[in-house]
Design goal:
Helices cover 61% and strands 3% of the residues. The chain is built from eleven helices and two strands; from the N terminus they run H-H-H-H-H-H-E-E-H-H-H-H-H. The chain is globular and about 50 Å long.
Amino acid sequence: MNSSIALDALVHEANRLSQEADGLSEAEWDLPTRCEPWSARELLGHIRVVLAWVPEMLAAPAPETADIDAVEYYRPDARFSEQTNTARIDLARDYANQHVNGASLVKDFTATWQRVEEMSRQEPVGRVVRTRHGDAMLLSEFLLTRVVEVAVHGLDLADALERDPWLTPEAGSILLDLLAGPEQIPAIEALGWRPEVFLRKATGRADLTDEERAEVTRLGVQWLTLG
């Protein structure tokens, strides 16, 4: 994965999220989401937190080689344990509660993804980073995981707000490549699934029929473990 492609997709998706979140009422920020027990406010707090790992990783020494890619990053191990999920929930809540209102939260979220873009564009091709879980991976692959976070939780926020999904073409395309592989995209499209429908199904946010499950198994679709 080219770093600029992953970063461009991240910037498009994060910018769209900033636009959609701008001007929400405090009542809307307090709406529940499917990511229980988070409210819309706390869910955006989580997205900001997971983006903020990037500058910290770039400020640290670079590992010599990468050990895993974006798909392997989502393997179901201790990072998705009950203890880790509890810590993830609390961290997002604590961060969101630091802001006096939703407007302040959106402003900081926007500043965070802009900082990620600024720092990432200064890095050389092949830059390796170490995640907070101890994995060494290419920056481009880690940025791809951030596209997953912003896009998938963007669907969650859209649903909580009862809005049409705003998945950008750039994010939708790169996630189809990640989850199905570029050679399978025509087959996915033949199923009649728009990118946001495919993303919902691939992340367990929409049910699969028996026929659909058999087809995506045949296509080798990657199912991601998400906290």
